[in-house]
Amino acid sequence: MPNLLVKPNGTHGRLTHVTPENAGWTHVGFDLHRLKPGETASGETGSREVCLVWVSGKGKARASSRDFGSLGGRMSPFEGPPHALYIPAGSDWSVIAETDLELAVCSGPGATGFEARAIPPGTHEQIIRGKGSNTRYVTNIMPEDDGAAHSLLVVEVITPAGNTSSYPPHKHDRDDLPNESFLEETYYHRLNPPQGFAFQRVYTDDRSLDEAMAVEDGDVTLVPKGYHPCATCHGYDLYYLNVMAGPKRVWKFHNAAEHEWMLKA
After folding, report:
1. Residue 183 lies in a domain
2. Is the pTM of this model over 0.85?
3. Contact call for residues 228 and 169 (beta carbons, < 8 A)
4. What is the CATH number of the domain that holds 22?
5. Mode of pairing for the β-strands spanning 173-176 and 180-182
6. Is 180 within a domain?
7. How many structural domains is the chain composed of?
8. Residue 174: which of 106, 224, 140 has the closest Cα?
9. What is its EC number (predicted)?
10. In angstroms, rounded to a whole number, what is the distance separating the alpha carbons of residues 5 and 189?
11. What is the pLDDT of residues 80-136, one digit of tens each?
């Protein structure tokens, strides 16, 4: 199995390149571009669909022969909800940076019958999940109930300093609806301030997979299967961008039985 912790490659250009081939799985892809004003990121979706997320900065976007104009605006992922752009299979796209720009390219298997669309901030309300030191703030970008994509699910989460997230541990690695769905997942991590670090564990019930990782600003973690909780340290807020995709566009998870008592406390 490939290394589950993917470090950024440099500080400029395409820093991260996760594909189904190099991740050893079937569905999820994730790229991260860091551009200077005037520079361009572009691509062709082919048989896949894409969600572009303006992690920080502004850029002019074109997709599926449509001009979407200037998108973005926040200069940090900790400064409010994002702009995003959905692009269906069989399309090309480009984004020209107007400021320093950090652009995430989230991808999964596509299909016909979908149209390119901008997803402005506020499209989906922020959700507060958990309580106490398990509180986190969730902003759906492409949730399962929007019906406007074939496979992609995309969400941002802010976890305050000292808190846990994706916790109690849950998994979604069995194609067994309505009980559980199979979804591969990536986490793109950012820390505020950026010199901080957090932890993520990916493990299965039988411990055939059991990896605990220290994650730093800009790291990506791969979740091919199993539970995947994370925790950030005192003094450092954690942002992560999740990309999920599988055979069905449904997020149905299973909680670790030994920790489920916390949901009833």
Report:
1. yes
2. yes
3. yes
4. 2.60.120.10
5. antiparallel
6. yes
7. 1
8. 224
9. 5.3.1.30
10. 11
11. 999 999 999 999 999 999 999 999 999 999 999 999 999 999 999 999 999 999 999
